[in-house]
Amino acid sequence: MPDGLLGIEELDRSQIEAILLRAKHFQPMQSQSLKKLDTLRGKMIVNLFFEASTRTRTSFEIAAKRLGADAVSITASGSSVSKGESLVDTLNTLAAMRPDAIVMRHSASGAPHFLSRHLPTPIINAGDGTHEHPTQALLDARTILDRKGRLAGLRVAIIGDIAHSRVARSNVHLLSKFGAEIVLCGPPSLLPVELANLAPGVNLTNDIRAAIRNADVIMMLRVQLERQHEAAFPASEYFRFYGLQLEHLDLAKPDAIVMHPGPINRGHELSSEVADFQRSVILNQVENGIAVRMAVLEKVIG
Amino acid sequence: MPIVIRNGRVIDPASGTDAVADVLIADGRIAGVAPNLSAPNAEVYDAGGMIVAPGFIDMHVHLREPGFEHAETIESGSRAAAAGGFTSICCMPNTKPVNDSVTVTSYIVERARAKAAVNVFPIGAITKGSAGEEISAIGGMKGEGAVAISDDGQPVMNARVMRRAMEFARSYDLPIIQHCEDLNLSAGGDMHEGANSVRWGLRGIPAASEDVMVSRDLILAQLTGARYHVAHISTANAVSMVAYARRQGLPVTCEVTPHHFALSDEDMGAYDSNYKMKPPLRGTTHREAIVYALARGTITAIATDHAPHAGSDKMQEFERCPFGVIGLETAVAVALEHLVTPGRITLERMVELFTTGPESVMRLGRGTLAVGAPGDVTIFSTDVAWTYDVNQSASRSRNSPFHGRKFRGGPMATVVDGQFRWKR
What is the interface pTM, i.e. ipTM, of the complex? Predict the structure, then answer.
C-alpha cells in the first residue's frame, strides 16, 4: 500500500509533530505577496470530491498550487460516477493517468481505505463519511498550538452531532495521542456511549454547561442533517440545549478559544455573537488549513 | 456399485452408535453398519483414523438460481456443498423470481435433479415476493417439494401477517423459519452496533433488532402452535428467549452459522466486506453466549447461510456491499476448530448439529445410518492439515472470511445416495 494519509488513528505522535512543525514553516508565506514554491513542480494532484465541499477542496487546491504542483479538481456530478461506473473503476481510470496523489472525499466511511488496498497511487483522505477527516484535525491542532503552545493537559470540549462527525473522531484521536482531556457533548441520540472507548482521555456528557466548564478549547460541530436518517433531536430545541451562547463562555477558562470546522450555521449551533467573538479562531482555522495541507502534500509526494 | 467404508469411527447420533465399524451402502441405501462387512464388486474406501457419519445437512443456503447465476448456480453451490461434507442442502427462496409459487419450486427441483451434486430441498417463501404482505402458495409449494417456508433476507415485519403465516405453516405441518430483524431498529446498519461501528463511522445494527423480533415471534408461536425456527441466531438475549420457550414445551428451534460462533466484530478488518453479513458479527459476549447455547442444547443445528455474491458486488464502498458470506466448504473445519478442539462440545454433539438437529426441523428422512436409510455419508478427519484457498472454491463466489485460514480437520469424502460425490 502506498503511503497516503487515511486517518489520524494510525499515525503516531512523531509523525503528527513532523507535519505540524512543517505547517508552521509554511504559515508565514500565506501572507506574503509571492506565495508560490517549486517544491512539487511537475507533480500532479487529483482532487476527487464525491461530496459537496468548498473550503476543503479549495484549500487542497491552493496548497498544491503554492507548492508548485498541478492540481485537477473533479466533482462527482458530471463525472463517470453518474454513468454508473463503480468507485474502484473510476479510481483505476484516474490512477492510470499517473497522478502523484489523489485527494479524496466520499460520503461512505472507509471508501479511501478500501481503494488504497487496490490502487498504486497514494490517497489523502479529505473526509470519509462519518469516519475521519485527518487534515481537519491537523489544522485544528496547529490552530490550538498557535494559541496555547501545547496540547497536553488542555481541556477540549467538542460539542454537537458527535455520532456523525468525522471531524470529532479525527480530533479525538489526535488530541488523545498528545494527552489532552477531551469532553464530548451532545444529545444522547448523537452521542453513542461507545465513544468513550475511542481513545484514552475521553469523557461524555449530555450537558453543555458541564462540557464547557474550565475548557481551554471549545470546538463546535455543525449539525449534519444530511447524515441523519431520522430526527435524532427536535431541531426546534437544538439551539436551546446545545447551541453555544455568549454566557456559556463565562464557564470556560478566561482565555478559552472557540473553534468550528465550518460551514457555520449562525443561530443553530452557535449564536451570531459567538461566531464573531474575539476569541473565535474560525478564520485562523481556515488559514491554517492551507499550511497544514501543504505539509501533508509535501510529506506524501515530496 | 456398492461401497464399503472400512475401519472408520462410526458416529451415528440417531442410533447412539460410536464405534469402529464398516459401513456398507448398496442400491443407494445404507445396507449395514458392522465390523468386517464386504460385498462383491464393492468400492472400498479406507476410513481408518477418520470419522464416518450420516450425511451432513445444511438447512440454510442460498443457491442464487434462478436469477443470479453469475454468483452461484444449483450445480456450483451443490458442488461446494459436497466439498464441504454436506449431502443435503435446503435453499432459501430469495431468488429472482422469488420462490413463492409452484412454478419456481418445481423449476428448482427439476434443475437440482439434472445438475446437483447433493440433495437439494427448496424452501418456499412465506409471502409473495417476500414482500411481507400476502401469504404465498404454501400448500402448492409443499406439494412440489418445499420442506419449509421462510422470507429469509427479509423478516416478516407485520405481526398479523406472521400470525397468519404461522397458522398456515401449522396446518401444512411445515416449519416456518424467520430471519429475525426489526427493520426499523436496524435501518441502514452495516455492522454490529458496538465499539467498532462507532470507531469506523459505520451505522450499527443493534442486537436489540434481533431480540425484539425473536420475542414477538415466540409469543406468536405460542399463540399458533407453529413449528418455529430462528435462522442464524446471533445474540445473547435471543438464545435466552429460545431456551425459555423450549422449556415451556414450544416446538421452537434455532440454528447458528459457523461465522457467528467462530468470529466477533473484533476479528473483522476495517471495511472488509468479506466480514459483512446479516446478522452481523456480534461482540464477544454474544459469541460466548452462542457457544454456551450450542453446548447446552438450546441451539440444535449448525447452518452455513452460504450466501454467494459476485466479486464485483463485494468490491465497493463497504456500505454498498451486499450482506453475506459463503460457508459450505469451511463449516466442518470451523466447527472442529472452534467447538470440538477447544473442548466446548463433543465430537458426537457436533455430528448431531449437522445431522439429527437439522433433520428434526426439516424432516427430510435423512441424517441417520439406519439400515434402509438413503445412502448419504459424510467422512471427515479431525487431524488432516489443510489451508482454505477460496480461489479454488467450487462456488462461483469468493466472499469468505476464512480465506487463507490453516485448518486442522475437515471433510474427506462425501457419499450421496450411494455414490461418491467428492473426495479430498
Answer: 0.94
